[in-house]
């Protein structure tokens, strides 16, 4: 298999609201659109493309038409997450989880779009906690 691109397809109640959110706050642009459909891309980096489908649209198999995006976190790994947080706050983006750092070195924040799609921005750092070895179970400092 040779994967040439990655696309996340999301079924939502309001395609226009999610399209505006992804374009205004996450740098996506519309590659193509029609009634009840929008294909979004960033085109210049490794972010997955996003397809938005209106709930109930007939292009979906009947068993999928009434499903909506739920319980999903769309994570994008970024550089300079503090600058991204400032940019998002200044643009009025709906930040629903402020920037925080986990002990294992993950810095993250979350936004939630009008259709309740959670987008998480992540930046990885070197964790401050010492490594644990399997042999002794004791913390050891590398260096």
Automatic annotation (TrEMBL):
Residue ranges of every copy of the VOC domain listed in the record: 4-124
Stretch forming the signal peptide: none
Pfam families: Glyoxalase
Organism the protein comes from: Streptomyces musisoli
PROSITE patterns assigned to the protein according to its UniProt record, in alphabetical order: VOC
InterPro entries: Glyas_Bleomycin-R_OHBP_Dase, Glyas_Fos-R_dOase_dom, VOC_core
Protein name according to UniProt: VOC family protein
């Amino acid at each position: 298999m040779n994967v040439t691109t990655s696309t996340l397809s999301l079924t939502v109640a309001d395609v226009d609201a999610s399209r505006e959110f992804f374009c205004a706050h996450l740098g996506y642009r519309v590659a193509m659109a029609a009634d009840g459909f929008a294909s979004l891309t960033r085109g210049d980096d490794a972010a997955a493309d996003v397809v938005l489908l209106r709930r109930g649209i007939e292009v979906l198999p009947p068993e999928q038409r009434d499903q909506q995006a739920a319980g999903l976190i769309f994570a994008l790994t970024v550089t300079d997450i503090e600058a991204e947080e400032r940019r998002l706050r200044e643009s009025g983006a709906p930040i629903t989880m402020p920037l925080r750092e986990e002990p294992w070195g993950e810095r993250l924040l979350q936004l939630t779009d009008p259709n309740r799609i959670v987008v998480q921005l992540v930046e990885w750092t070197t964790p401050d906690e010492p490594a644990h070895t399997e042999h002794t179970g004791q913390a050891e400092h590398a260096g």
